[in-house]
Automatic annotation (TrEMBL):
Catalytic activity: 5-(methylsulfanyl)-D-ribose + ATP = 5-(methylsulfanyl)-alpha-D-ribose 1-phosphate + ADP + H(+)
Gene responsible for this protein: mtnK
EC nos: 2.7.1.100
Family affiliation: Belongs to the methylthioribose kinase family.
Protein source organism: Halalkalibacter alkalisediminis
Protein name (Swiss-Prot/TrEMBL): Methylthioribose kinase
Length: 405
């Protein structure tokens, strides 16, 4: 094993290659290639590969600032520790859906994990119009097992308190509090709004007090509901897929938060792809209808699998004396569902007008067509937030999406 690094410094391809040899991931004489492949908003990601036998690893390193903005936005390196610890905990619960961590160092802020380059990032796969038959089942299972077994329902309640203290993540939570729950709902300078969309945003979002009241409640839930260890950023860019595999990466926003948060993030990003397909597949109406149907089926099946699996875990692994009380499970699931819809609405809106848009929509080059998708998303996001307590079944949610024009 390597001698522990005592000073932080950002890796280069050369030092990343050297680190992988020091960690004995490879033999000293192996010829290695090293490439920085990070395309996310925050971190460096190096792929190190033996050029002869093609064995490879990923070294992810946090930078002391937010890469998308630059050094003017300092950011804690502790997010790397959180990500490593979250991946390890998740691997205990759902190993087939999580990359294995081989090494982590909180000083150097690195996590060494499986290379998943044989898979594709879900967002890219969906933009290309690909369907993934295992996706809904896998994410439903992922959500049920991680959310249940890290909560007071499925984890010894003393152990849960101790575990929650390892996932205090104030700086990354603040990013979400600002970028998801606050800035998009005001005329804030972090927002990224085309001039031609500003009037619509002003009238539809910023001037709607009823919407703001509901967002305030959802933000309060994010701030105070320490129910379970959530991934914290479960968008379609955080999921690797193929026809056979689904692997969830990038839990640096993990913290003890509301059950519905990850469910809502996943649904929101499927909805954004759904709306963007109005443009991407405009010239193939039949394929568009079929693909959008597929996306709605993924939303439906994910929730149904989550609900069934959560119910089974609740019945088979209860940690609380009240869990066999009539109606408790049903009420818990209903609250998770309405929270999830509200969070989904906030996430849809933030990706349309806040910092850090999504490729599904930003890749639409015609500004008028892009704005039309954004307007649809903003009004649908609003509906989800305001109507979340009336949308009491997955069928009702899917109908709101498919009826939305
Ligand atoms: N384990 C991995 N295997 C292969 N590629 C990866 C892996 N982890 C990350 N990547 C690549 O790096 C990109 C950014 O990774 P991500 O964890 O999302 O970084 P960030 O935290 O900056 O968003 C991913 O979109 C993917 O292309
Ligand atoms: C300044 S961070 C913006 C945004 O980036 C994160 O996503 P990712 O790193 O996975 O692309 C997260 O969603 C943050 O809200």
């Amino acid at each position: 094993m390597a001698i522990k690094q005592v000073v932080y410094e950002p890796l280069t391809t050369d030092t990343a290659r050297e680190l992988s040899k020091n960690l004995q991931l490879f033999n000293q004489n192996d010829q290695l290639s090293a490439v920085e492949i990070g395309d996310g908003n925050l971190n460096l990601v190096f792929r190190i590969q033996n050029v002869i036998n093609e064995k490879s690893y990923i070294i992810k390193q946090a930078l002391p600032y937010a890469k998308v903005v630059g050094t003017s936005w300092p950011l804690t390196l502790d997010r790397s520790r959180i990500e490593g610890e979250s991946l390890k905990r998740t691997y205990q619960l759902v190993p087939e859906l999580t990359p294995k961590v081989y090494y982590s160092d909180s000083t150097l802020a690195v996590t060494v994990m499986d290379d998943l380059s044989h898979l594709i990032i879900l967002r890219k796969g969906l933009i290309a119009g690909n369907q993934y038959p295992k996706l809904a089942k896998d994410i439903g299972i992922f959500l049920a097992h991680t959310l249940f077994f890290n909560s007071d329902f499925g984890l010894n309640q003393q152990d849960k308190k101790i575990q929650s203290s390892q996932f205090i993540n104030p700086e990354l939570c603040k990013i979400t509090e600002d970028l998801v729950f606050t800035d998009p709902f005001f005329d804030h300078d972090t927002n990224n709004i085309d001039d031609t969309l500003k009037l619509f945003v002003t009238e539809t979002i910023w001037a709607d007090p009823a919407l703001k009241l509901e967002v305030a409640k959802l933000k309060q839930a994010f701030l105070t509901k320490g129910e379970t260890l959530v991934h914290g950023d479960l968008h379609t860019g955080s999921i690797f897929v193929s026809e056979e595999e689904t692997i969830v990466i990038d839990p640096e926003f993990a913290y003890y938060g509301p059950f519905g948060f990850d469910v809502g993030a996943f649904i929101a990003n499927l909805i954004l792809n759904y709306l963007a397909q109005d443009v991407h597949l405009a010239v193939q109406p039949q394929k568009k209808a079929e693909f959008q149907r597929y996306l709605l089926d993924v939303i439906t099946e994910t929730w149904q699998v989550f609900e069934q699996e959560f119910t089974t875990l609740w019945q088979e692994h209860p940690q609380d004396a009240f869990m066999n009380v009539d109606g408790y499970l049903e009420q818990t699931l209903q609250t998770i569902f309405s929270d999830a819809i509200g969070f989904a609405g906030c996430k849809v809106i933030r990706r349309m007008i806040g910092l850090a848009g999504v490729e599904d929509v930003e890749s639409i080059t015609d500004v008028n067509l892009r704005n039309q998708v954004k307007k649809n998303a903003l009004t649908l996001g609003k509906k989800l937030i305001v109507q979340r307590n009336e949308l009491t079944s997955i069928q009702k949610l899917v109908k709101v999406v498919s009826d939305h024009a």
